[in-house]
Amino acid sequence: MAHKASPREQKRRPRTSLERDKQEFRYLCRKYGFERLCQWRNEDAKNPPPKPHRPRNTSCDGWVDMMVELLLSTGSPPPPIGYTRKAAKAMWESHAKNHATVADPKAREAWDPHQLSTKDPDALAERLDKELRKRLKARLSG
Questions:
Q1: Which of 49, 53, 86, 111 is the most buried (most CB within 10 A)?
Q2: Prediction pTM value
Q3: 66 and 134 together in one domain
Q4: Contact 85, 121 (CB under 8 A)
């Protein structure tokens, strides 16, 4: 006669993620208490973790810093967007030229024009202009 499997030996179905989450929630409620879990949830809602994003290339920050210092020392207003567009186009072309000539793969990736966090020179000009005005305002008010 064949041996009947005991309840422990019987194959169990895998738990769903909802069942695992409920079990974990009950464990945490027993361990820390429901009030503390609610407090933690409210704290997390006030200070959400930063969203993951592609790190911004800061190779243009030097230009922005130089322009801020120049404008503050001369007392001039910010340049028109046309000037910023010319500078952005020159930066874009410089990155494209260096990208084509660099042999090292890691350096080549750093010189890729798309590493400027934009898809074209006009978008780069908009970002530079916005950053320039933001930094000028911060320096003048602070």
A1: 111
A2: 0.50
A3: yes
A4: yes
Residues 87/62, Cβ–Cβ less than 8 Å: no
**Residue located via tokens 């019987």:** 10
Q: State whether 78 and 128 are in the same domain.
A: yes
Domains: count for the chain: 2
Containing structural domain, residue 27: 18-46
| pLDDT tens digits along 96-136 | 777 777 777 777 666 666 666 667 778 878 888 888 888 88
* Cβ burial 59-90 (10 Å sphere, 16+ → b, else e): ebeebbeebbeebeeeeeeeeeeeebbebbee
Q: How many Cα atoms are found within 13 Å in the side-chain-facing hemisphere of 12?
A: 7
Position 4 in a domain: no
Q: At what angle do helices 121-141 and 81-101 cross, to 10 degrees?
A: 120
Contacts of 108 (CB under 8 A, 6+ apart): 99, 102
d(CA 94, CA 88): 10
**Does 99 lie in the same domain as 75?**
yes
